[in-house]
Amino acid sequence: MLRLTEVKLPLDHPEGAIKAAILKRLGIPADELVSYSIARRGHDARKPEAITFVYTLDVEVKNEPGILKRQKKDRHLSLTPDTRYHFVAQAPANLASRPVVIGTGPAGLFAGLILAQMGFRPIILERGKAVRERAKDTFSLWREGKLDPESNVQFGEGGAGTFSDGKLHSQIKDPMHHGKKVLTEFVKAGAPPEILYVSKPHIGTFRLVSMVEKMRATIESLGGEIRFQSRVDDLEIDNGQVRGVVLANGERIAADHVVLAVGHSARDTFQMLYDRGVYIEAKPFSIGFRIEHPQSLIDTCRFGKNAGNPLLGAADYKLVHHCSNGRSVYSFCMCPGGQVVAAASEPGRVVTNGMSQYSRSERNANSGLVVDITPADYPGHPLAGIDFQRHWEERAFELGGRNYQAPGQLVGDFLAGKPSTAFGSVLPSYTPGVHLGDLSTALPDYVIAAIREAIPAFEKQIKGFSMHDAVLTGVETRTSSPVRIKRNDDYQSLNTRGLFPAGEGAGYAGGILSAAVDGIKVAEAVALSMVRNEAAHSG
After folding, report:
1. Which residues pair with 70 in a beta bridge?
2. pLDDT of residue 532
């Protein structure tokens, strides 16, 4: 098949316009076109009054060699790449050992799925609960201010991404098209088929819940085993080689291949690994606030007269500003038509995140406004970033009233340096609630200064961004892992053989898609290692 890129058509184009564009671009009559499919669809909204769809199309024609020869100078025409997934190994018959996967976030879930599909019958351990029970516990925090430290936005089946916008786009390099495998498995589990081709696919929380359950069922049907409320409290390491894991209840599971996919908030696990001598280093992350505007404001700014068009959906944005103090401020995890959610996992601390449903139909748009932090800001041991996060999460708990309400401030008051006392036209979506006041002491001075400089700069790109009534809610501290569990080219820990750090918690991903792709890569490395070991022992 042939791949055509940069096929641009008006937003309101008729159904037959795609076929007509193909015929015109290739210079062929209609009877030469066998079929076509949409590989990708995005939109160009740089001119809101004339928004266009931009297509990548896979086309089957009768005379492919002739067209390629005739159109060889067209850089937007090529052969369609093979994006099918190819398994790297198959488990040997009567394999003596089973791999262990710790965590059921995107990295752990896909590591387990791929291993199961290759016949390795993984044992998957999750400290939290199954996704529906976990959802009930999460809602208890949101509605009643009751936190379960083992079952919340961060911990439980599906990982932190379950309570998010369900964004499935990433900027990672993916030469093996592992991302296509992720999206294909999601569609099998009930995701809308459009995620296979839209440029910024998303799923939403409610759909993610049922999809995770179906993927669990698939893993189990292939011989995998998933155990909930099974926190790993220790690793058994012998002369630099993993030999097993020890659960909180004292049970030992022997394993010489362990995938560590614990997510960015498993602070007790990071401490255990550090105590066991596994190589860990501090890494940069970002902290800031959530900001909420009327979604209609963002739609109008981005889409102009086309705001509200169902083909476009709710508008998003991506912003960055380099400040005079040397910091960078950028929008993070922007959630169109969504809500700000309580994402704490430890008592006495407040953490925020953003979430949307598939419809993205809530009244507010929200995004993190975060500032880059480096290990130079929290010098000390490799886990010092965790202490740094905890300090500001405890400060947010204090400013919010010590009941899991979050501290908040109107943007106009924040810029003017005065406390807020009443909400205006924008009502915050965070539950258990937002306690208005002064956010100037909620984060380090250099972060506050950077955000105060960035908001008026963003106003130049989105008119109304600095509106007085927009709401800031604190604090966002879990943008990414504060540590990296470094690994070699074979995906094993630098100094602990058989330990395969994976995903966001290990410092190798940022978001659902990139974490899932990393889980696939790690699963492949585990499979190849186990096959080699089996061959060596049998030989």
Report:
1. none
2. 93
* Inter-residue contact 366 to 338 (CB < 8 Å): yes
Tokens at 499, concatenated: 């330990």
* Cα of 363 vs its chain's centroid, Å: 23
Query: What tokens were used for 166?
Result: 């369900």
SS3 19: helix
Bridge partners (DSSP) listed for residue 436: 408
Give me the helix-helix angle, 205-221 and 178-188, nearest 10°: 100
C-alpha pair distances (Å), 126 with each of 101, 108, 155: 9, 9, 8
Q: With the C-alpha atoms ordered 287, 260, 222, 154, is the resulting torsion angle positive or negative?
A: negative
Residue 61 DSSP symbol: E
- Is residue 273 a contact partner of residue 280, using CB atoms and an 8 Å limit? yes
- Dist. CA 228–CA 156, nearest whole Å: 8
Question: Measured between alpha carbons, how far is 415 from 24 in angstroms, rounded to an integer?
Answer: 54
- For residue 289, the surrounding DSSP H or E stretch is strand 285-294
Q: Using an 8 Å Cβ cutoff, are 355 and 338 in contact?
A: yes
pLDDT tens digits for range 42-78: 999 999 999 999 999 999 999 999 999 988 889 999 9
CB of 537 closer than 8 Å to CB of 256: no
SS3 letters across 292-315: EEEHHHHHHHHHHHHCCCCCCCCC
Written as one letter, the residue type at 273 is L
